[in-house]
Amino acid sequence: MSIFADPYKLFDIRGRVAIVAGATGSFGAVAAKTLAGAGCKLTLTAGTADALEAIADECTGLGAEVHTINVRPETADIAADIVAQTVDRFGGLDILVVAAGINRVNFIDEMGPDDFTGVMDVNVTQSWLMSRAGTAQMKAQGRGGRIVLVSSARGILGHPAGYTAYCASKAAVDGIVRALGCELGGTGIVANALGPTVFRSPLTAWMFEDNEHATKVRNQFVSRVPKGRLGEPEDLAGPLLFLASDACDFYTGHTLYADGGYTAG
């Protein structure tokens, strides 16, 4: 039957096995709940045990079978073990989302080298290590797969408030997915990044408050967003579902910006 008779099947990922590394972060939690609600079997990883248990409970409540691993993928061995545990529990790996990320804000002449390398280690090296482990498993299976890393509008835009480490890290993530898109082109594995702008989360909740400072900052930012508002977690669910599904089979090596048009202007 032609796919055009039922194009919704392109987005059906029920029963697929997914890893969300960094599942307690702002985007990681959105990714975990989106994939849970879509019917995936989930391995969730994070470094904070209580927060990991909380997001796992939410995903279980959405009907997902969930395995948790209280680690950060800081080494090749840890990344490989995350994948191995997933395969042991669920029988394979179809979708890898790497959502771990940090920012340390300071002007370049005031930022220590350890702050810079710390941001790069989490945002870039951990993304690379998980992509490496996930790629090896997906290649061995021979049925393709989906890799989704987390970028940002700051991967292509600067920022005046001390973002040299963060901007550099997200530009590097963009470079990883471009390279993977080329490298994995014939394997059935596609690799992309999702680039949000500011969206509602525990870290940005203050920007949504009704006070003079928050209103001023919010209005300054929103003035550059064609959609005229900040993002909501729900705004990221659709783009993620696309990148995790068969619908993106011919879309690889790209960063998809969920930013209300922010990077367009």
Give me some keywords for this one.
7-stranded parallel sheet; alpha/beta; 265 residues; Rossmann fold; 7 strands
Detailed description of the structure:
With 265 residues, this protein is an alpha/beta fold. It has one domain: NAD(P)-binding Rossmann-like Domain (Rossmann fold). 42% of the residues lie in helices and 14% in strands. The chain is built from seven helices and seven strands. The protein has a seven-stranded parallel sheet with strand order 3-2-1-4-5-6-7, sandwiched between helices. The radius of gyration is 18 Å and the shape is globular.
CATH class: Alpha Beta
List low-confidence stretches. none
CATH topology: Rossmann fold
Biggest pleated sheet: 7 strands, parallel
The tally of strands reads 7
Rg result:
18 Å
- Structure annotation, total helices: 7
User: What count of structural domains?
Assistant: 1
Task: Note the run of SSEs as H and E.
Answer: EHEHEHEHEHEHHE
The helicity comes to: 40-55%
CATH superfamily: NAD(P)-binding Rossmann-like Domain
Average pLDDT works out at 94
Arrangement of strands in the largest sheet:
3-2-1-4-5-6-7
Q: CATH architecture, please?
A: 3-Layer(aba) Sandwich
Report a brief summary of the structure.
The chain has helices at residues 26-37, 49-61, 76-90, 113-141, 164-183, 212-222, 234-244, and strands at 17-21, 41-45, 66-69, 95-98, 145-150, 189-196, 255-258.
